[in-house]
Design the sequence.
């Protein structure tokens, strides 16, 4: 037995041998038969049988050769156990069929006890209980309601039904892998990745992150559709028609120009304040957003907080709109008619008549684009070469204007829109100059 001050006690792995009740009854029948009694009267011999078998086990452990040979003729059940005291001084025993499994568990527990992170199975919370604790912590940290709602859906619909009853101390990497495989079999890859990320987050909070650290859902490019101009991204001609159709509505014209020429997310448009718009300097600052519940909060990420320059036409449209904009407590640029935060659906619905008037509709005559499409347009406008009416900005600048957390995100989403750099005429000219 080894002691670790203040960290508990580890007991070496040892073999356990015992006779089951059925074996005791079998031995009692043998004793009855030897005494010339009928087997159905063997019950009175069970006490004697139990004492004999117990004594035999004790003698064999003491090294008695005859007892050891007797065990071979009537072998007991065997198992390997590891028992230990935790930090609270409570004893715990775990039984294994094979010695190597017991030794592996012993080695793991020894390390965990030393670190002070071991939780015995009898004291361990279940995955479902850990998930609830994680949700409460997320709420206490002040995360947005939409985020908390998404996490709860992950737990209630996918995590708890599949592995919620398993105790954290019993959860293994293989079980997490099986959970991951089950998600991929029934959910889309993006959703499966999000649910697995939630599981990893709750395990990290519960100090059990190691069981899932090597389990992941890779990104698959197969079937992933890039935004296309004319389908997902408004064309330049469509933007012109939309702005022309809204010329008599100062609010919608300002909204369309802001969405198309700044690339703000819908939540950022809804949370934009006049104090964030510097009409003299000709730029706006993204400092907050409105979520689906109309709660005002910080931008989506740290990099989402940014400054965006305003084109002259947009600047003029905003100045005109400010004179007619409804006043409200939050001093918003695009509020509801009462000055409150505008719901996303209402903002999109207000653009429907303009889209119909401009002929920007699908084959069924319905408005062709959602608000996010104008963010796509802004990205394409920043990327396109100047001879095609674009700004031809470097990828890093496009990333900053869009508020992406990394340039990888920008290139992954819009990389197909950047010039390919394989112009044959330019190639021939450069090669001739090189070899001249």
Sequence:
């Amino acid at each position: 037995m080894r002691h670790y001050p203040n960290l508990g006690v580890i007991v070496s792995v040892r073999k356990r041998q015992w006779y089951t009740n059925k074996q005791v009854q079998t031995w009692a029948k043998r004793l009855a038969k030897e005494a010339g009694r009928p087997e159905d009267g063997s019950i009175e011999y069970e006490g004697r049988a139990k004492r004999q078998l117990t004594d035999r086990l004790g003698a064999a452990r003491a090294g008695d050769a005859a007892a050891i040979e007797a065990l071979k003729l009537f072998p007991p059940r065997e198992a390997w156990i590891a028992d230990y005291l935790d930090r609270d001084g409570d004893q715990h025993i775990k039984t294994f069929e094979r010695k190597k499994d017991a030794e592996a568990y012993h080695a793991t527990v020894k390390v965990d006890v030393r670190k002070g992170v071991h939780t015995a199975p009898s004291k361990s919370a279940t995955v479902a209980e850990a998930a609830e604790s994680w949700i409460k912590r997320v709420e206490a940290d002040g995360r947005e309601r939409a985020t908390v709602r998404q996490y709860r859906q992950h737990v209630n619909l996918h995590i708890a039904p599949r592995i919620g009853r398993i105790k954290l101390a019993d959860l293994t990497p293989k079980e997490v892998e099986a959970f991951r495989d089950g998600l991929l079999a029934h959910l889309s890859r993006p959703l499966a990745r999000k649910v697995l990320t939630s599981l990893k987050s709750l395990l990290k909070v519960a100090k059990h992150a190691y069981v899932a650290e090597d389990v992941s859902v890779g990104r698959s490019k197969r079937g992933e559709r890039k935004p296309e101009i004319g389908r997902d991204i408004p064309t330049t001609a469509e933007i012109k028609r939309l702005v022309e159709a809204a010329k008599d509505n100062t609010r919608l014209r300002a909204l369309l120009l802001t969405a198309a020429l700044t690339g703000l997310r819908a939540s950022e448009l809804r949370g934009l304040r006049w104090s964030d718009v510097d009409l003299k300097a000709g730029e706006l600052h993204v400092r907050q957003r409105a979520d689906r519940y109309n709660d005002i909060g910080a931008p989506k990420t740290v990099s989402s907080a940014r400054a965006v320059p305003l084109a002259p036409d947009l600047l003029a449209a905003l100045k005109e709109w400010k004179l007619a904009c409804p006043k409200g407590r939050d001093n918003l640029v695009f509020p509801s008619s009462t000055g409150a935060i505008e719901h996303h659906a209402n903002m999109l619905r207000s653009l429907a008549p303009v889209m119909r008037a401009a002929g920007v509709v699908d084959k069924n005559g319905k408005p062709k684009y959602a608000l996010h499409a104008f963010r796509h347009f802004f990205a394409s406008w920043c990327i396109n070469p100047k001879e095609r009416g674009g700004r031809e900005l470097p990828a890093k600048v496009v990333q900053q204007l869009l508020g992406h957390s990394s340039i990888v995100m920008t290139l992954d989403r819009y990389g197909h829109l950047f010039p390919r750099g394989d112009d044959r005429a330019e190639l021939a000219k450069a090669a001739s100059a090189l070899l001249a």
About this structure: The domain at 236-417 is CATH 1.10.443.10 (hpI Integrase; Chain A). DSSP finds 17 helices and ten strands in the chain. The beta strands are 2-4, 8-10, 14-18, 77-85, 91-96, 277-278, 283-286, 289-290, 296-297, 306-309.
